[in-house]
Amino acid sequence: MFDVVVVGSLNLDLVAGMDRLPGPGETVSGNSYHEYPGGKGLNQAVAAARSGASVAIVGAVGDDTAGEFLRQIVVAEGIDDSWLATAPDTATGRALITVDRHAENSIVVIPGANATVRIDTGALPEGRVMLGQLEIPLPEVTAAFEHARRVGMTTVLNPAPALGELDALLDACDVVIPNEHEVDLLGGSTALRSRGVGTVVVTRGGEGVNVIDETGEFRHDAFPVTPVDTTGAGDSFCGALATRLAEGLDVRAAITFAAAAGALTTTSAGAVPSLPSRAAIEQLVASRAA
């Protein structure tokens, strides 16, 4: 029995830094380049593991050096890779990321092996919380969430990238965590609640977090930090929130911990490298309480 089962993507992130992001048809000069482990599934799995959860990941990498590298990261973080497939004759997913001097980013994702993920509901790991995103095929995420709902797991969806036709998946969601752009594409928090979602958590970057549930709406202010790179902040939030839900907290009680994790992630570069430990998250939470 794992605390958190993550169903999702694994990518190699190719990150270029520059003063400003280019417009359509424009070329700008970059000032840095790095390669990092990433993909929303891997990011969220590592975030959950570092924040204290036992984690299994369900996904796929390619049979290339990038795939070997990402599997090594999974194992090194203490995440169970028994359900991580290697897709033959397929490249590992990639994300092309540009980051400007204000820490804003633009991302292009090439699915690669992530598109080959197929869910065998008879062989999924058991857990308390299932956490998923939309960077693997939608029918597979839906199948996994429907199974999780049947066996009594709490289901948490980060609907990124946002898609319109999510009715079947939303029927199986306890918590949905969109950002401010994704929630608009999905028709708004009221529409999501009317489609059966128990709790909607809207992340708004430096503006904080809004929680909408059966009791109304609650806002949590962001932790004040100096951002370096916002890549992975939302994934950090999701992984940390899933950890606290697995520990028995409700969403409102878990928000401060998750918000602190997301804020800390923006203070250094890269997605996986910037994901904070539980000790660091608790220290930031304690600083606000003081």
TrEMBL record:
Co-factor remark: Requires a divalent cation, most likely magnesium in vivo, as an electrophilic catalyst to aid phosphoryl group transfer. It is the chelate of the metal and the nucleotide that is the actual substrate.
Protein residues bound to K(+): D229, T231, T265, S268, G270, S274
Keywords: ATP-binding, Carbohydrate metabolism, Cytoplasm, Kinase, Magnesium, Metal-binding, Nucleotide-binding, Potassium, Transferase
Top EC category: transferase
Cofactor(s) it depends on: Mg(2+)
Pfam families documented for this protein: PfkB
Any one Gene Ontology cellular component term annotated for this protein: cytosol
InterPro entries in the cross-refs: Carboh/pur_kinase_PfkB_CS, PfkB_dom, Ribo/fructo_kinase, Ribokinase, Ribokinase-like
Regulation: Activated by a monovalent cation that binds near, but not in, the active site. The most likely occupant of the site in vivo is potassium. Ion binding induces a conformational change that may alter substrate affinity.
Reaction(s) this enzyme catalyzes, per UniProt: D-ribose + ATP = D-ribose 5-phosphate + ADP + H(+)
List of residues binding substrate: N11, L12, D13, G39, K40, G41, L42, N43, E135, D235
Regions crossing the membrane: none
Subunit organization: Homodimer.
Role description: Catalyzes the phosphorylation of ribose at O-5 in a reaction requiring ATP and magnesium. The resulting D-ribose-5-phosphate can then be used either for sythesis of nucleotides, histidine, and tryptophan, or as a component of the pentose phosphate pathway.
Similarity-based family: Belongs to the carbohydrate kinase pfkB family.
Protein name per its UniProtKB record: Ribokinase
